[in-house]
Amino acid sequence: MSVSLRLNRKGTKDRPYYKIVAVDSRKRRDGRYIEQIGTYNPLAEGTNYEIDLEKADKWLSVGAKPSETVNSFIRKARTAATK
What we know:
The protein is an alpha+beta fold. Helix content is 29%, strand content 37%. It has helices spanning 53-61, 68-82; strands at 3-12, 15-24, 35-40, 49-51, 65-66. It has a five-stranded mixed beta sheet.
C-alpha cells in the first residue's frame, strides 16, 4: 500500500476548508483516510494552516509521499518551528 500526504476537501460551495491527511494513494480525493495530520483554511488571513510535524515525520519516515502543497506546508512549519 502506497501512502500519500494530501488535502481532503471539506466545507461548502465557495467556502473551502481542507484537512491534511495520510491516505492510501489509490483512494479518491475525499475518500476515507488513515490519519489527519493538520488543517488548511485558504480563506483565513496570515498563517492559514496547522500541521502536526511529529505525525508528518512519522509518515515520511515510513515512505509516504507528500503532494506539492502539503510539502510546502511542512517546509514552512519547520522553518517557523526553528525560529
